[in-house]
Amino acid sequence: MSQRLGSHPPRFAAVTLGLLTGFSGLLSPLHAQDTDQLRNAVPAGQQPAVNPVPIQSGTQSAPPAAEQQAAPAQLPKPAPQDSVVSRLIARLMPSEHVSGKDLDDALSARALDLYIQTLDPLKLYFLQSDIDQFNRYSAVVDDHVRAGNLDLAYYIFERFTQRVDQRVAKIHELLESDFDFTIDEEVIVDRDAAQYAHNAEEATDRWRRQLKLSLLDLKDSDEPVVGQEARDQLLRRYDRYAKRWRSTSSDDILEMFLTSVTNSYDPHSTYMSPATLDDFNISMALNLDGIGASLGEKDGTTQVKAIIPGGAADLHGKLKPDDSIVSVGQGKDGEMVDIIEMPLKDVVKLIRGKAGSTVRLGVRPGGSGNTEIMEIVRAHIELKDSAARGKVIEHEVPGQPGMLKIGYLNLPSFYMDMEGARRNDPDYRSSTRDVAKILEDFKQQNVAGVVLDLSRNGGGSLTEAISLTGLFIDQGPVVQVKDSNGSVQKYDDDHPGTVWDGPLVVLTSKLSASASEILAGAIKDYHRGIIVGDPQTHGKGTVQTLMDIGQSLFRIRRANYGALKVTLQQFYLPDGESTQLDGVAADIVLPSVIAKMPVAEGDLEYALANDKITPAPHDLYRMVPADLVNALRVSSQKRISEDEEFTELMRRIGLYVDQKDLQTISLNEEKFMQRRAEMKAQKDEQEKEIEAQLGTEEVFHDTFYNQEVLNITQQYIEGLRAQNLARAN
């Protein structure tokens, strides 16, 4: 199997509960010697033939024994094929990755750090002495992966499980003691600010504070848990956590270790174990129903990465990117199961279910604050639920008589009915076809301008992005794609003519990603329309290919050996700028909470840098005069400064930023509850602002934010008319 993945921001090792879209692609064949080695490795109980590279650091040639610790019983051992898979990953990453980088010592150091982070993201388990020992081998991870030697991965994992057992034993002791919630002390909640404990005493003190925070969290929730019940819940949580690691399989260790290696190239390149690949294929086939959200794991909690347009969570309206899910209940009254420190794949199993059934989620908005219970009815994701929709709005022109007709077009994704297209069905659905029909209807109703809302569009079909852009430009390049060998392929709209040649405003947000950035960027490069919204779009300017390792080796899928998802191409706009990292900048920026959320490409570790290639010649329209855009900015800023709702919004944005940037939390109960009350007081208003920007079921939400979008559109239309530029030419 080889599949191009060009949609959805996300950016983490994530599981998607709903619709995924992608592209087909080709991969270079692997070497025959690896096929032979893997065939020889298949028989159970036999170790693959490898020539391990000794760990070399000073005079040390092998990892030292764990410091006076007994090894956990029944540690997993590498599977026979793991060595060959490791060597294949080491060969494929330099040859297939768009950067063309060799797996060298610099990437080796990154990989080691990422592997340690995967195991201990908040620096709660390892001691500083452990880290000092591990760092002696930071320059040999690449050598080991090339040799198929997994000793270092298992050595670190063994040390980690020893530390987990130690900490959980100490947690049992601490939860039998009393906690003083009246004293002024804090707990560090920011990984960058945290330090590894230097000894057992420091580790114990950090865990005492962590447990106080957990008890306060349980007390401050929609369904408060206090006293012995709260302590028992924490005991169960950490006993489950220790059991989780003791039951880790060799596949799990291989996935964590090799993904740390691939993530050292960029955050989207990952290795999927056989079980993860099976889950991914189920998601792609849409054989299971769910809530329609992309979930990832961060610091021991399940985090919402993206909401799938048209899915159950999207229609529900309250679950947002960056929220944390801490508990799951089945039906309207099923027990709420604590899922903190639960493996993501187990969380997914709890959240998935039949369409029409109910799941209850305990959610911390923004990853902090009090827990809110959200009741969501699971559903199939239908094409029509994420389809383009339009509405003609009669906008009252401030200070002028009469109304101005503006066409508002909401496009949640770039989609195509692939089966219908293959059958040559004359009426198959696609985003381009649907948008063209809406634009024709707008013209029949004599709209003066069009707003194309991509603010919650996470991407989709590249082909559709190109053809849909062609509805607004005559002909010419829409996107350029660079491969790992440095060659550049230009993709044009080759259909003459346009469907809409009048004033165009493209509304974007930090969640507008991938294919939506291609359209917005092309419109900007052609000077065809103006971009309004967050300072920049998401910044995902790369394409991933999914390689089924077993099928690549044997040409048929004889067995499941997992898959490599590798970033092999990068997007560039007609003018040669990449959408990677920097996204597409707005011509006119509006205040927004979303813009401050850590949900963009630039918020990911080791995201690929932005660069440029040679521009592709193309037409320039006279639809974005510099003097008009400057006048629009000035007018919009004046309206915003005088608007009470925008003033209140900017106050809430400031509070959100202050809370997001906190490195510590007070463990004084009075101060803790006071802070949570302040956060809760602004949460409802914050949700309204996000809803105003993203919307759900309605095509257009009549809010102060969207009214300002219409005000900008109206002034843009009038400005073009004044300069006799109301049509593209």
TrEMBL record:
PROSITE patterns: PDZ (PS50106). InterPro entries: ClpP/crotonase-like_dom_sf, PDZ, PDZ_sf, Peptidase_S41A, Tail-specific_protease, Tail_Prtase_C, TSP_N. Keywords: Coiled coil, Hydrolase, Protease, Serine protease. Its EC number is 3.4.21.102. It comes from the Bacteria. The keyword Hydrolase applies. This is Tail-specific protease. Belongs to the peptidase S41A family. Pfam families: DUF3340 (PF11818), PDZ (PF00595), Peptidase_S41 (PF03572), TSP_NTD (PF17804). Residues 45-79 are annotated as: Disordered. GO terms for molecular function: serine-type endopeptidase activity. GO terms for cellular component: outer membrane-bounded periplasmic space. The keyword Hydrolase applies. Residues 60-76 have a biased composition (Low complexity). GO terms for biological process: proteolysis; signal transduction. CDD domains: cpPDZ_CPP-like, Peptidase_S41_CPP. The gene is prc. Residues 669-696 form a coiled coil. Residues 281-352 form the PDZ domain.
